Inverse folding.
């Protein structure tokens, strides 16, 4: 089969139990609930349990997505995990998830495009499936951002949360009416220093260079997100406005054709700006930022799942997904809902 159509046939989301409110953050850093709500729209975020890792969140979301699609892990041909907080440097979190789900002998790999990981993953899976490589792909965005946040930096620690979202993608007939329409992806590494997670000794750090294997330093120490928030904000608003226009133009659609905007949930003001450019009311926009904060690669599938579990998606509706991330890496996907 080649040039098949690609459909989301299962979806699931998982948020760890522990909820951290803005009031709790007031005790940690010099901030206020009012400031956080006004500048970001965030009211609370979920925090991973001490004994959980990113793969555990991914597994929970994946189980729900598989059940929703009415299949098991044995029916899956490929597994992709988008994450910026992997369990280990290697093996990939995808192989950990595969094993925890009881799957064997199908390809599994990670994608690192930070908050755009799910949008990138959807584009990659779609391309491979249309080319006939896979019939059923499990795509997960999963993050434990609280583990890499600098809890002393009020400019960033208030923004992030943990969670996972998963979809089952299935190939269908090439003449299907609904399903994935296409994607647009971008990256520009010139901006890489504006938003990054710093580790004192990253895996390829020259400090870890082994002089004839006689020199290795202790690489222990915490990683921490660093961001020039204001500059990121400005570029995000511009690039997201551009990419939603670009994808509509590429697939010959208009903003009035869109039924749902499912944006990355970084900041309510960025979402409002994109919705405005598309002339969309906020009641046609998936909004989870208040409850989840920024869950990085989990944010777009969690927002889509939120619409789904609240019964708001209907077959044939046109959905525009978009994300903006460190790198910078950004992109968008268009999907006609087929469930
Ligand atoms: O997921 C990837 C993409 N990420 C994003 O898109 C995030 C983009 N950036 C943002 O969302 C916003 O820039 C922030 C929410 C991070 C910051 O909002 P802002 O309106 O851009 O604030 P700012 O950085 O310009 O800071 C304004 C003031 C500063 O004080 P002064 O210099 O005016 O006295 C900050 O020190 O707000 C201060 N401030 C805070 N005050 C209370 C910064 N963080 C806080 C805080 N509580 N948590």
């Amino acid at each position: 089969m080649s040039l098949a159509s690609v459909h989301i046939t299962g979806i699931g989301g998982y948020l760890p139990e522990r909820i951290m409110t803005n009031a709790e953050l007031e005790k940690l850093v010099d901030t206020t609930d009012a400031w956080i709500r006004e500048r970001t729209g965030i009211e609370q975020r979920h925090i991973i349990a001490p004994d959980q890792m990113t793969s555990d969140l991914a597994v929970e979301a994946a189980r729900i997505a598989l059940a929703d699609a009415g299949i098991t892990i044995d029916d899956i041909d490929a597994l992709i995990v988008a994450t910026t907080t992997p369990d280990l440097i290697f093996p990939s979190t995808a192989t950990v998830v595969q094993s925890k789900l009881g799957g064997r002998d199908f390809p599994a790999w990670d994608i690192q495009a930070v908050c755009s990981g799910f949008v990138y993953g959807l584009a990659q899976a779609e391309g491979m499936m249309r080319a006939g490589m896979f019939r059923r792909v499990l795509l997960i965005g999963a993050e434990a951002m609280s583990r890499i946040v600098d809890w002393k930096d009020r400019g960033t620690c208030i923004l992030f949360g943990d969670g996972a979202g998963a979809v089952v993608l299935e190939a269908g007939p090439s003449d299907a009416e609904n399903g994935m329409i296409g994607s647009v992806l971008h990256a520009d590494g010139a901006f890489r220093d504006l938003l990054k997670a710093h580790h004192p000794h990253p895996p390829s750090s020259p400090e870890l260079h082994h002089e004839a294997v006689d020199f290795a330093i202790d690489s222990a120490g915490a990683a921490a997100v660093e961001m020039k928030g204001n500059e990121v904000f400005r570029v995000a608003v511009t690039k997201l406005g551009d990419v939603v226009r670009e994808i509509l133009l590429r697939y010959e659609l208009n903003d009035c054709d869109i039924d749902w905007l499912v944006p990355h949930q970084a900041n309510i003001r960025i979402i409002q700006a994109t919705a405005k450019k598309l002339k969309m009311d906020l009641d046609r926009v998936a909004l989870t930022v208040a409850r989840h904060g920024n869950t990085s690669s989990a944010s777009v599938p969690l927002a889509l799942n939120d619409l789904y579990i609240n019964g708001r998606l209907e077959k044939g509706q046109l959905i525009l997904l978009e994300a903006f991330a460190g790198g910078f890496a950004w992109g968008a996907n268009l999907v006609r809902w087929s469930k």
